[in-house]
Write a structure and sequence with these properties.
Chain B: GO terms for molecular function: flavin adenine dinucleotide binding; squalene monooxygenase activity. The complex is a heterodimer of chains A (about 600) and B (about 475). Chain A is mainly alpha-helical and about 600 residues long. Chain A has 22 helices and four strands. In chain A, strands 1-2 form a two-stranded antiparallel ribbon. In chain A, strands 3-4 form a two-stranded antiparallel sheet. In chain B, the strands form three sheets. In chain B, strands 1, 2, 8, 9, 10, 11, 17 and 18 form an eight-stranded mixed β-sheet that branches. Chain B has a seven-stranded mixed β-sheet with strand order 6-5-13-14-15-12-16, sandwiched between helices. A three-stranded antiparallel β-sheet of chain B has the order 3-7-4. The longest helix of chain B has 30 residues, at about 350-380. Classes of the chains: A mainly alpha (about 600), B alpha/beta (about 475). Chains A and B meet through α15 of A and α6, α7 and α13 of B.
Chain lengths: ~600, ~475
């Protein structure tokens, strides 16, 4: 216990945890700061049948991660804890491909779960694509992309350029893979399929039920028939353009938008005739390697998992500031985007802002940008000011017509092609138009813009507040403590004290406090405490929450504790990520704020 | 002077001017000069001994500087540190590195320079000058609490001070007591004042600017900023930087400095930002704040009463035209005084006919200035899609040629008030609205719906200004 009392002791402790996490992020084999499901790891293992790039240590590390995530009933589960047929298919296949005995008890259980859930035909596009590439099923298990779409101008509604950045890379790669068609020698996972009485695999339905879906299915069939016709100049040109898209979208760090687009794009390049020792393929594989990291799966067990991106800048910013690391601001400023990116297609703003990962040079991430703006508070050097000015302009330009803010590209949640009744159509969007991730992002943006001087007098801020108000009216009852806390912090700076949204969210948040002063786990309590402090008057609820938090911090024994993690929005087939360092960061931020704004525990 | 060193106060004056700021002092001086035979008496009353503590206008366009020169203030002001200024430089955003330069010297037939001076210096020098005038009595530290009436006509003022109450009769009371004029209220003149927000002011010494002798308007941030020189001391310039703040102040007290550093400084050019950051860090106590109002010009005269300066209408200070308006008011009211310089001393110096002619003249230049100031403030603040569209259009228009810049500046500097010019400027800007709103600056495939929204906003806002343009044109054309 330090001389300053329990609050100071808890502060010192939480800072030490942040320092531990900072060190973990900067080890030779860094820890993963954003942990996805096992899907990317499985796909890396499957793709290694083509690239032969993994070392034995890496292969065993990834396998250990996949095995560790298998549930007792044999399934792999999604973020909600439900058995997921796609993850289970991939997990099963990756293990068998790596040499595990398919007759092992846990794999037999996994196969049973797959069959109970409807077999691989019910799995997502990724699994069906792997099955098609392995030759286990026909290519009509994956939807066909009309080549001509690539000849459309980029502003056209049906142009693949209008897809979300994740989907754009995936669909383009899929198009090239299907056009090849790609063939990879993988373990024949025919047991993943369900068969009818004639021993023929039951095919999936590619479209949604209904007349529109039936028509689209017929359209899909007609495209396949059209492909059997002699190849014309249109098809050649469109394939050439798709390939150029793939080549142009590779970033300086070697990767594409994230791990899965990188895996698929590399395979597409190989199908297009690029050799394994081509620098583009090598740098792509190096990127995948950098996106892997250590994950702690038990008190003593550490494994290797495939992340979605390289080292996340948001974590560098949050942990660096909390841990008091010298030079972190300069590092953040150096990571500012300096080249034009696809996000500028529809957002009228200069180059600037920050990407989700260090060394990326194309994809803006508004969430990371907001986190870095927060981290740069109080350091107003000439270099910072220029970055802030650009960031403010970019953030404002990323506003959607409905008032909310897009994370990567404007229009990412309202892709026109996603309106078609494809079964996988929602994967073309990135997030929903009013899901909680967008609420949190909009609240973060409003908070950071307030610091930069943009208030409700500006019609764009007023529109964002109105969007929050509408979304709260529809879904606010189901918002988590973390979401409510973010919205309260935003409304405190943007809305007057008696604004209905501010009052409603504050009241809703206050009612979630429990008898012991907590708001659930340490993370929720820390976030709620930040919001209660932001409200202004030091209240009894804030004191109780702080007391509870300090008590809990004191009760955690180890120096590298398993603090509660939080969910982050991911992309595409990995919609949720886990953030294991969130607990340390949030607790330190909340206690620091309490010390600064309130003072001592009452 | 009486035994306590105060000026001897008579019971009656020809003119009582309430307010010894720029407009009041200039009017007193102008009237005194108009009274060649020195038969008239003028009383100037002000609430504050010395200078009002609140910071106020400091930038004067060439036409105003000419009035100051004609009245004999100019040389004294320059000797006291006032700076000759060359015009305006307007920066669209921090990223834009070719600001629009609007030079007074390019306006044909106009004095090539304006004047900028620290407000406290200005008032101190002007009051000192007045004290040398034998027809003028300057009374400081007295508050006007009532007006004396003779039926509908105002015929005097009731003053209170530490030494009691004074009732002073006169032929004409002139309200020169600023935008929150007490006299205007006491006279029951309709007051449609709207509070726009606040202006925070900061003095910065030795800042490095590319155009130090211009008023630098810097946009792009949450509100416009204005930076101009206010004094020269041993060759070193001091600058005034003003920040436009919304009505609901985002921060108060010491927090305001931090807010300004976070919100406004990123938009200032590098070296200036450094000087301002340094000045804000060193600043002790609260920053100087002044409320900004939009006061549509009330009737400038009533029987026995005239309004001048901000009391007769004011706008946001972004166009820096308020001081020039006050000086023009003084000039035109003094012109009427000169006309009646020869009437016998027992007759009112400025009668109802003089006031009517003054009002006709006043009502010709004030609406133009107010319409311009309001529109430019709206565009520069850019709080709506339409306003931002107009702002883009303005810059596009200004960058399209020297002639365009000259015409705009002439209007801004109150040197041009022909209705056809005003109308032509309006139409040309409206034309540029379309082009600038349809063409994005950075986006490769800016959605058509967004372009249309921008155009709709800007055209809609331009449409709301048709009435203002018509009003300005009518004010110039009407025969009475």
């Amino acid at each position: 216990m330090t001389a300053g009392g329990p609050l100071d002791a808890a502060l010192a402790r939480s800072q030490a945890w942040c320092q531990t996490w900072w060190a973990r992020l900067h080890q030779p084999q860094p820890w993963l700061a954003e942990i996805p499901d096992v899907g990317p790891s499985c796909e890396v293992l499957l793709a290694d049948a083509l690239f032969h790039d993994l070392t034995e240590v890496e292969r065993q590390g990834l396998l250990a991660w996949i095995r560790s995530q298998q549930h007792q009933d044999g399934s792999w589960r999604d973020a909600k804890g439900e058995p997921d047929v796609s993850l289970t298919c991939l997990g099963y296949w990756a293990r068998v491909q790596a040499g595990d005995d398919p007759d092992a008890e846990d794999l037999v259980r996994a196969l049973r779960v797959i069959h109970e859930l409807g077999g691989a035909r019910q799995a997502n596009l990724s699994v069906r694509l792997w099955l098609a590439m392995a030759g286990t099923v026909e290519w009509d298990w994956v939807p066909s992309v009309p080549s001509e779409l690539y000849l459309l101008p980029e502003f056209a509604r049906l142009s693949p350029a209008r897809l979300s950045p994740w989907a754009r890379q995936m669909v383009t790669a899929l198009h090239l893979l299907a056009s090849g068609p790609a063939r990879i020698h993988l373990y024949d996972a025919a047991e993943l399929l369900l068969y009818n009485r004639d021993d023929a695999a039951i095919p999936p339905r590619l479209t949604r039920p209904g007349l529109a879906g039936d028509l689209l299915q017929a359209f899909d069939t007609s495209i396949r028939l059209g492909r059997k016709l002699p190849r014309g100049v249109v098809r050649r040109r469109s394939l050439g353009r798709a390939r150029r898209w793939i080549e142009d979208a590779q970033q300086a760090h070697g990767g594409w938008f994230s791990t899965r687009p990188t895996i698929y794009s590399l395979m597409a390049l190989r199908v297009a005739g690029v050799t394994s020792d081509d620098p583009r393929v090598r740098s792509g594989l190096d990127y995948l390697r950098r996106a892997r990291g250590t994950v702690e799966v038990s008190a003593s067990g550490r494994v290797l998992a495939q992340g979605l991106t390289g080292r996340p800048l948001a974590k560098v910013a949050g942990l660096g500031v909390a841990a008091g690391i010298a030079g972190v601001h300069e590092r953040l400023l150096a990571a500012e985007l300096t080249s034009a990116g696809p996000w500028q297609r529809r957002a009228d703003a200069p180059i600037g802002g920050w990407s989700a990962e260090a060394d990326a040079d194309a994809h803006l991430d508004l969430r990371t940008t907001c986190t870095i703006l927060h981290a740069l508070r109080g350091t107003r050097t000439p270099a910072t000011r220029a970055s802030l000015r650009r960031a403010a302009e970019i953030v404002l330009a990323m506003q959607e017509p409905d008032g909310s803010f897009a994370r990567f590209e404007r229009g990412e949640a309202t892709v026109p092609l996603s309106q078609l009744p494809w079964r996988d159509a929602e994967q073309l969007n990135l997030g929903g138009t009013d899901d909680e991730a967008r609420v949190v992002l909009t609240a973060m943006v409003l908070r950071e813009l307030a610091v930069l001087g943009w208030r409700r007098e500006d019609d764009r801020i007023a529109a964002a507040c109105a969007w929050l108000e509408r979304t709260h009216a529809r879904h606010g009852h189901a918002w988590s403590v973390a979401t409510l806390a973010e919205v309260v912090r935003a409304t405190v700076v943007q809305c007057v004290a008696d604004h209905p949204l501010r009052k409603a969210c504050e009241q809703q948040l206050r009612t979630k406090q429990r008898e012991d002063g907590s708001f659930g786990d340490e993370l929720s309590t820390a976030r709620a405490l930040l919001a209660l402090i932001a409200v202004g008057d030091p209240c009894a609820q804030a004191q109780r929450a702080a007391r509870n938090l300090v008590g809990r911090v004191g009760a955690i024994a180890s120096d590298g504790p398993n603090l509660p993690d939080t969910e982050l929005p991911g992309y595409g087939l990995s919609p949720r990520l886990r953030d294991p360092s969130a607990g340390a960061r949030a607790i330190h931020a909340a206690l620091s704020s309490f010390r600064r704004e309130v003072g001592q525990l009452a | 002077m009486n035994a306590e060193g105060h000026p001897a106060i008579a019971d009656r004056y020809d003119v009582v001017i309430v307010g010894a700021g720029l407009a009041g002092c200039a009017l007193a001086q102008a009237l005194a000069r108009a009274d060649q035979r020195r038969r008239r008496s003028i009383l100037v009353v002000d609430l504050h001994r010395g200078v009002s503590p609140r910071f106020s206008g400091e930038f004067i366009h060439p036409r105003g500087a000419q009035v100051l020169d004609d009245l004999g203030f100019y040389n004294r002001l320059v000797a006291a540190g006032a700076v000759d200024v060359d015009g305006f430089v307007v920066t669209q955003s921090g990223e834009q590195d070719d600001p629009v330069v609007l030079d007074y010297a390019s306006i044909p037939g106009e004095r090539p320079r304006g004047l900028s001076v620290h407000h406290k210096t200005l008032v101190r020098v002007m009051r000192q000058t007045l004290r040398d005038r034998e027809q003028v009595t300057l009374l400081e530290g007295w508050r006007v609490v009532d007006l004396l009436r003779d039926g509908e006509r105002t015929c005097g003022v009731v003053l209170t001070g530490t030494e009691g109450e004074l009732r002073i009769r006169c032929d004409l009371v002139v309200a020169a007591d600023g935008k929150a004029s007490t006299v205007r209220k006491l006279a029951g003149v309709p007051d449609g004042r709207q509070t726009l927000g606040f202006t925070a002011g900061l003095e910065v010494t030795g800042a490095k600017l590319r155009h130090p002798l211009h008023a630098n308007v810097i946009l792009g941030g949450p509100g416009p900023m204005l930076c101009y020189p206010i004094s020269r001391d041993d060759g070193q310039l001091s600058f005034r930087l003003t920040f436009d703040l919304p009505h609901a102040l985002p921060a108060k007290g010491a927090d305001l400095s931090r807010y300004l550093i976070d919100a406004f400084l990123p938009y200032l050019p590098g070296p200036l930002a450094e000087s301002v950051a340094d000045a804000l860090h060193r600043h002790k106590g609260p920053l100087e704040l002044a409320p900004t109002f939009n006061l549509p010009a009330p009737p400038a005269t009533a029987p026995g009463l005239a309004l001048v300066g901000d009391a007769a209408g004011c706008s946001h200070p972004i166009t820096a035209s308020g001081m020039t308006m006050g000086l023009l008011d003084a000039k035109y009211l003094a012109r009427e005084a000169r006309r009646r310089a020869d009437v016998s001393a027992d007759q009112p110096w400025l009668d109802d006919g003089s006031l009517r002619r003054y009002r006709i003249e006043h009502d010709r230049y004030v609406p133009t200035r107010q319409a311009l100031a309001d529109s430019i403030f709206e565009a520069f603040r850019g709080e709506g899609e339409g306003a931002r569209g107009i702002r883009r259009a303005l810059f596009r228009y200004w960058r399209s040629g020297e002639r365009q810049r000259v015409r705009s500046l002439a209007l801004l500097a109150c040197a041009e008030r022909r209705p056809r010019i005003f109308l032509a400027e309006y139409l040309k800007t409206a034309h540029h609205v379309l082009a600038s709103s349809f063409a994005p600056r950075h986006a490769l495939h800016f959605p058509v719906s967004d372009r249309l929204r921008q155009v709709q906003g800007a055209v809609g806002l331009a449409g709301t200004k048709v009435g203002v343009v018509a009003q300005v044109a009518w004010s110039q054309l009407r025969p009475f």
